[in-house]
UniProtKB/TrEMBL annotation:
Molecular function in Gene Ontology: structural constituent of nuclear pore
Compartments reported by the entry: Nucleus, Nuclear pore complex
Protein name per the record: Nuclear pore complex protein NUP88
UniProt cross-references to InterPro entries, sorted A to Z: Nucleoporin_Nup88 (IPR019321), NUP88/NUP82 (IPR037700)
Coiled-coil blocks: 695-722
Biological processes annotated in GO: mRNA export from nucleus; protein import into nucleus; ribosomal large subunit export from nucleus; ribosomal small subunit export from nucleus
Keywords: Coiled coil, mRNA transport, Nuclear pore complex, Nucleus, Protein transport, Translocation, Transport
Keyword Cell division in record: no
A Pfam family annotated for this UniProt entry: Nup88
Length: 722
């Protein structure tokens, strides 16, 4: 078992041990550090960057088994149906097994015990009418759309689709903007529902969001962060509800269908795609049909009240793993049917009543695509792959080849294209009538830097093909002959691919041994005949080969010319990009220089600020503290008393220094000035001089007090600044 990695020098990665089983699925995580190697009963993880040894181009990487205690070692019992990395985490991957259990493992924590386990019970015990209804087939994660990003869609072999919501890997990051959008939606519409079960689920959803993403409770403090990390949380007394089976709405008569009766066989493949405002579900059937549905409503979280969850916590009370039994709600379909009939009977309905009704979202039938595959007893094996650039496009691989399907009508994104059916174009055809087994042992769609998609596939015969998809351009189908191991173009004049026969060169002629030629002379009849014969042989092998090469290169000229023009256009675009980058580089250099100058100026200002007295302040000594307390007391009590005394003395001084007005107040209506009574005569000159000297001393004292007041105020200002 080995893998070739497309790096500048090709390397061969090999596991450090013999896996002991046939690998049927290989998957690389988002950051390219880990590789899942899945078989029918075993799973291993190969760590790409953890190399044990190297021998030339061969690299031995560390390999570890996954869930060896759960999966049997004798290839009997539990079977691995599907493994897939989680799109929002590089260390979490999901595993769906034949015992109807979906497990989520954390590569960075524990490879033996799953982080989350969901035991699926699509029907109630004792009500099973079809054994295929309890056999899971595949699952798919939701994409970046409301609650879809927290959903896992599970397909069963009878075609029924169930949903688990919410399912979040512990420790993965989500966009905070999207989390806040969901949180606002629950508070706005979920709590306004008239259904008490919906209100209960809304309260559980709000509690789940607040516990899983605690940043919602402190939005003002963490407004600068763009991502929110999911915390480990699960309700203790409640478990997730297995929503479904999702009913289908028939567009012609607006009636509900529990199952598609037009598709035959059993479901063999499943894929989810988010296209604009629509969530598209594609189901592949063994009869060679593709069933394309879209969600007619938004997915909402649902819990089964009173069904406890098993939690495994550590010594600090943190959740290590979660396990729960997920039962379906048998009343969901009947309740949805009654709600549908009642809503059709009423002409006017408010928006708040139409949302969060507590039912699983119905499916709107978009189309059924029949690939016209030959009928076989065991049915056909179909595999579905999404296009990495065009979400409306997906690929279906089967025994007859590889087909591309493009959707044109979507109910919410492209409602104007309602009359346009999906288009199907063959990318590769094999001409093989036996379609019970796929012809591809590996397939991947890779997006390049020019907005194109490269389809790379490896057949069971060891042939590798690469098809370039340019935007919405439809590819030219290729014809693969499995018996001769040759790939031919259906229209060779338009593809520009040189045949392998010419690339391999001419077949060398069969030459006789050198001993037999040495016995002949050029002048003899036998020598001339032999020489003429080999000249004819060389002409047939080399001259005709050169003529074929000339003809094909002449036909190849148009293709090379087109490719050269394409490369020239790309080169001009790259040159323009380089010129714009150079112009931006000069502007960036100017901005960097300007920022450096500002930085130097700020450093100088910081150094000057360090020289200020307040920058090197020290704690006050005991004497300074006592002096400060005296100043405070003086400022609070004595300063006011001193100002009052100064004001009183000033008033008295003015009263004594004013001359006697005599009878000047007679005309004013005021009481006339009365002369001093007997025994108190006028003030003598000595008393007046004494009074003036006292006033002068008071003035000097006042000036000294004013100076002290200024000092005190200065100290108080310095204290306030410190």
């Amino acid at each position: 078992l080995f893998w070739n990695v497309c790096i500048p020098m090709p390397k061969m990665l090999m596991p450090e041990m013999d896996l002991g089983y046939e690998v049927t699925h290989i998957s690389l995580n988002t950051d390219g550090s880990s590789l899942l190697l899945a078989g029918s009963h075993n799973i291993n993880v190969l760590y790409v960057h953890e190399r044990v040894s190297e021998d030339g181009d061969t690299i031995i990487c560390r390999t570890a088994p996954v869930a060896s205690q759960i999966l049997p070692t004798n290839n009997n019992g539990i079977k691995v149906l599907q493994t897939s990395w989680h799109p929002f985490s590089s260390s979490h991957f999901g595993v769906l097994t034949s015992d109807a259990v979906f497990r989520l493992f954390d590569l960075s924590f524990d490879l033996e015990q799953p982080e989350q386990e969901f035991y699926l019970q699509p029907i109630l015990p004792g009500r099973c009418q079809n054994a295929s209804s309890i056999c899971p087939v595949a699952f798919s994660y939701g994409s970046d759309h409301l609650w879809d990003r927290f959903s896992v869609f599970i397909l069963f072999s009878d075609g029924s689709i169930f949903v688990l919501c919410p399912v979040v890997p512990f420790g993965c990051d989500y966009s905070k903007k999207h989390i806040e959008e969901i949180y606002e939606d629950v508070n706005t519409f979920g709590l306004k529902s008239s259904n008490p079960n919906v209100v209960t689920n809304s309260h559980l959803a709000i509690a789940w969001l607040e516990a899983t993403f605690p940043e919602l409770l402190r939005q003002s403090a963490d407004s600068s962060t763009l991502m929110s990390r999911a915390r480990a949380y699960a309700p203790v007394d409640d478990s997730l509800t297995l929503q479904g089976p999702l009913c289908r709405v028939c567009e012609e008569n607006n009636e509900l269908e529990g199952k598609n009766s037009s598709c035959e066989g059993k479901a063999v493949g499943f894929v989810y795609s988010s296209v604009g405002k629509d969530s598209v579900l594609v189901t592949a059937w063994g009869s060679g049909q593709l069933q394309i549905d879209a969600l007619a409503d938004e997915i909402q979280p649902q819990w089964s009240i009173g069904v406890p969850t098993r939690l495994n916590v550590d010594s600090h009370g943190r959740i290590k793993s979660v396990a729960m039994i997920c039962d379906s709600n048998p009343q969901d379909s009947s309740a949805l049917r009654s709600h549908r009939s009642s809503s059709m009977g009423s002409n006017v309905k408010s928006n708040t009543e139409a949302v969060w009704m507590g039912h699983s979202p119905p499916l709107l039938r978009l189309s059924i695509v029949d690939l016209a595959l030959p009928k076989t007893s065991n049915g056909s094996s179909l595999s579905l792959f999404l296009d990495p650039l065009v979400p409306e496009r997906f690929y279906c691989a089967h025994g007859g080849g590889l087909d591309m399907v493009t959707l044109h009508f979507l109910p919410f994104s492209y409602p104007e294209m309602a009359s346009t059916p999906p288009s199907v174009h063959p990318v590769l055809t094999t001409g093989n009538s036996d379609t019970s087994s796929p012809f591809l042992s590996g397939f991947v769609a890779i997006a390049d830097a020019y907005g194109h998609v490269q389809l790379v596939g490896i057949t069971y015969t060891g042939e590798c093909f690469v098809v370039e998809m340019k935007g919405w351009k439809e590819p030219t189908p290729l014809q693969l002959d499995i018996c001769s191991k040759d790939i031919k173009d259906v229209e060779s004049s338009t593809t520009g691919m040189i045949s392998k026969e010419l690339l391999a060169g001419p077949d060398p002629p069969i030459l006789p041994s050198s001993t037999s030629l040495r016995s002949l002379t050029p002048d003899s009849i036998e020598g001339k005949s032999t020489l003429h014969h080999y000249i004819k042989v060389f002409h047939e092998h080399y001259v005709e080969y050169g003529h074929k090469v000339f003809i094909e290169l002449k036909e190849h000229e148009d293709y090379v010319k087109t490719e050269i023009e394409d490369k020239q256009k790309r080169l001009q675009a790259v040159k323009q990009s380089l010129l714009s980058i150079e112009a931006k580089d000069e502007e960036i250099n100017k901005r960097v220089n300007r920022a450096s100058k500002v930085y130097d100026l700020l450093e100088k200002r910081i150094e000057s600020f360090k020289m200020l007295p307040a920058a090197n302040k020290k704690p006050l000594s005991q004497a300074e503290l006592e002096f400060k307390s005296q100043l405070d007391r003086f400022a609070d009590v004595e300063l006011d008393a001193l100002r009052t005394s100064i004001a009183a003395l000033s008033a008295r001084m003015k009263r004594f220094t004013q001359p006697s007005l005599g009878g000047g107040a007679a005309g004013t209506g005021m009481a006339p000035f009365q002369a001093p009574k007997a025994g108190r005569g006028h003030v003598s000159e000595s008393q007046m001089s004494l009074m003036k000297s006292s006033l002068e001393r008071l003035s000097l004292l006042n000036e000294e007090n004013n100076q002290k007041l200024r000092v005190i105020e200065t100290e108080l200002k310095n204290k306030e600044q410190q």
